[in-house]
Amino acid sequence: MKRFSLFLCWLTVSLAALAEGRAKYVFYFIGDGMGVNQVNVTQTYLAALEGRIGIKPLCFTTFPQVALVTTYSATNGVTDSAAGGTALATGHKTRNGALGVEADGQTPVSSLAYMARAAGAAVGIATSVSVDHATPAAFYAHQGQRGSYYTIGQDLIKAGFDFYAGSDFLQPQKKDAADASLYRQAEEAGFTLARGYKDYLKKSKKAERLILLPTEATLKRSANSLPYAIDRLDGDMSLEEITRAAVHFLSKQSKDGFFLMVEGGKIDWACHSNDVATVIHEVIDMDKAIRVAFEFMAQHPDETLIVVTADHETGGIVMGRGPYELHTDLLRYQRLSVEAYAAHLKELHASLGEGLTWDVVKKDLTDHWGLMGPVAVSDRQEARLKQAYEALVKGASADKKSLYASVNGLADEARAILAECALIGWQSGGHSNGYVPAFATGVGASLIHGQMDNVELPLRIAEAAGYRP
Q1: DSSP symbols for 59-123
Q2: In terms of C-beta distances under 8 Å and separation of at least 24 residues, what long-range contacts does 8-14 make, across chains too?
Q3: pTM of the predicted protein model
Q4: Which of 103, 106, 164, 177 has the CA that lies 20 to 30 A from 284?
Q5: 383 and 313 part of one domain
Q6: Are 339 and 440 in the same domain?
Q7: How many domains does the chain have?
Q8: 19 DSSP 8-state letter
Q9: pLDDT at 179
């Protein structure tokens, strides 16, 4: 009965797609951890910067088709990124921790990327985190454990897609084996490796397939991902540049169009740290990448589909902490991510030693967070900051750990107090089962609407593009 129902769904969607035409160029943007409220707080913040209550739309929130998407996995009410990514990539539920396989952890399932290649399209997989992280890997790997990074890297090479981009491999070399590094294996398989956007521009003309990674200078500061947008320095590659490179490279690879998945992976990382200003900057940064696709669609309006969604919500963020008001405009005074600020404090302590007085730290908190300056704090909040400062200088600071970071107590107090002043709350440092949004525009976008489950999205994208499941 279930198979028959799925067949009816497939048939209905197929007929609708045929009536609208085929999407030759498919953009699939996934904001990792980006629930409804992550989008809402970003738009609310942008309006607040203009001195008004309301929202200022992002590019992707103006898309005509909108849906609410459920995200549970085959085994858990709350999904992880591997199972969530697999659902969005393949249309199959799997167990948490598994990539590109059924819930048994072994049976491979095909992704949209493989379907696109079978249809003759060029394929690109891009992210702001490592190229072997859960969401990008769900499109090319078949592994029972998301942490099998070396094997996942080998799957990336075996898949042989045209373009990959993101931060470096997490395990490019086996420690206790004579196996060649992933870099060497990639080059032997015909890939050109480029380090940074400028290097891409030099090498892309002659490259048949390409892997775009950060420069060595960027990797020294941020080894496992691109730097947060709020921390970005000159020379750091952005998700917007990666998307431009992907469109440029894929456009020359095939006359039959392309499929491009782009992940805003660090939205999730910032949510795990409950760092709301950094979350906002990451959502805005992904929106800039989406604008690249939107510009492309303006040149190919009858052949392009853009879908934007998320694999799950992270953190349970809410706007409002009791009083019926918001002060999201205060978030503009945060100059660094909480992780970067923790590193800054460590360097400051090392350089000043006993000269790191409370007065020095108070000014530093004002400079980087607005606290005790344009952001008024209560006596109790200032006492919390001073207590954290004293623990830091005594070497007794209790670090606050999240999934991807560990920061000292003073940095974490600054983050928490700014959120309190802005009246932003968090439920946890993990994922939730909240709805995530889906936005779509272009050919076949009408198939994305209403309440959907995550496994329905790739099915409808495949039909819009004419890919065979």
Answers
A1: SGGG-SEEEEEE---SS-SS--HHHHHHHHHHS----TT-BSB-TTS-SB---HHHHHHHTT-EE
A2: 9/456, 9/459, 10/459, 10/463, 10/469, 13/447, 13/459, 13/460, 13/463, 14/463
A3: 0.94
A4: 164
A5: no
A6: no
A7: 2
A8: H
A9: 77
